Amino acid sequence: MRRSSSRIVIGALAACALVAGGVALEAILSARRTPREAIAGPAFAPPTIAVFDLEQVLAGSRRRAEMEDELKREFEVKRGELDKLRNEIKKYQEELGMMKGDSPEHQRLERLVHQKTADAEFTEKQFTEEIERLRTTRFQVLLTEIQRVVAELAGARGIDLVLQRKLTLQDGMPSWEAVFHALPELDVTRDLIETLNKQ
Q1: CA distances, 165 to each of 43, 169, 171, 180, 184 (Å)
Q2: pTM of this structure
Q3: What is the pLDDT along the chain (199 residues), one digit of tens a residue?
């Protein structure tokens, strides 16, 4: 009889220990939950995801078109300066063709042509580097603006994760699909273009 009573007491104590342990574990887990998990309950809500196509955003961006027009105008100005220098070289070369090769004037013009040709090559190199630098700088400004618009759109719609459909690993390399499939309703490309062009 005493042995049975002991078993009942031990069983009751074990049950109490299990309950107490469960309460303690729940308290620990509750303390570790984020505010979002605490509101949603034990089941974690899946993140809200959206995708967009950067190439389409750039193609539809009014600011991108304005940037290209500005670069084109600067290109034409630089190209005009270079063409003027080349025309000057061409004129000197024509004069050289009408002179005797051993005359002092021929030698002077020949040195001048060499100098002008070197100047033209240097000017063209500088011109190309400057245009590329301007394009890169302005493109980075535009990308920063797009990133800001993406963040604003995500915040307004409660989107947790925004993915870019295509990625380019290196300049001059073709882009590859980073997102192979997404439902049409997840694509916010058009919304980004509209928001970007309103600003």
Answers
A1: 29, 13, 17, 8, 12
A2: 0.61
A3: 444 444 433 333 333 333 333 333 343 334 444 444 444 445 567 889 999 999 899 999 999 999 999 988 988 888 888 888 889 888 888 888 887 767 888 888 888 888 988 888 898 898 889 888 998 999 999 999 999 999 999 999 999 999 988 876 555 556 677 888 888 899 999 999 999 998 7
